[in-house]
Amino acid sequence: MTKSELIEKLAESNPHLHQRDAETVVSAIFGEIAGALARGDRVELRGFGAFSVKRRGARTGRNPRTGDSVSVAEKHIPFFKTGKQLRDRLNQGNSKP
Fold first, then answer.
1. CA quadruple 67, 71, 73, 75: dihedral positive or negative?
2. What is the DSSP code (8-state) at residue 58?
3. What is the pLDDT of residue 51?
4. Domain containing 20 — which CATH number?
5. Distances (CA, A) of 31 to 27, 34, 56, 85
6. Residue 95 domain-assigned?
7. Is the pLDDT of residue 19 over 80?
8. Domain span at residue 53?
9. 3 state DSSP class of 76
10. How far is CA 70 from CA 2, 19, 54, 55, 58, in A?
11. pLDDT over threshold 80, residue 1
């Protein structure tokens, strides 16, 4: 599902909201999540999952084309861990007898 599909679905399921209002809500939520992660905070949505930032240290990599060693700088990577309720919902019916 894309962001525009989410906005459309939200507007359909809430007829009192105009499409532009649904877009404002979705953008505000995503903006707050991104802002919190940029500050290094953790965002937890109970029953859905948690967003956090993991640090990848600097390392020496390899250029696959030339085989030369290259220095790779430290990075911060967004990480998502699903919540138990979401995992259970996804695996509902997939259990083995």
1. positive
2. -
3. 97
4. 4.10.520.10
5. 6, 5, 24, 25
6. no
7. yes
8. 3-90
9. strand
10. 35, 48, 22, 19, 11
11. yes
With CA atoms as reference, report the closest residue to 25 among 9, 45, 5, 10. Answer: 10
Place of tokens 């019916």: 93
Cα gap 32→89, rounded to integer Å: 26
- Classify residue 96: in a domain, yes or no: no
Q: How many domains does the chain have?
A: 1
| pLDDT single digits (tens) 66-84 | 999 999 999 999 999 999 9
Helix (H, G, I), strand (E, B) or coil at 89: helix
What's the rounded mean pLDDT across residues 58-64?
A: 94
CA distance 23 to 67: 47
Q: Residue 23: inside a domain, yes or no?
A: yes
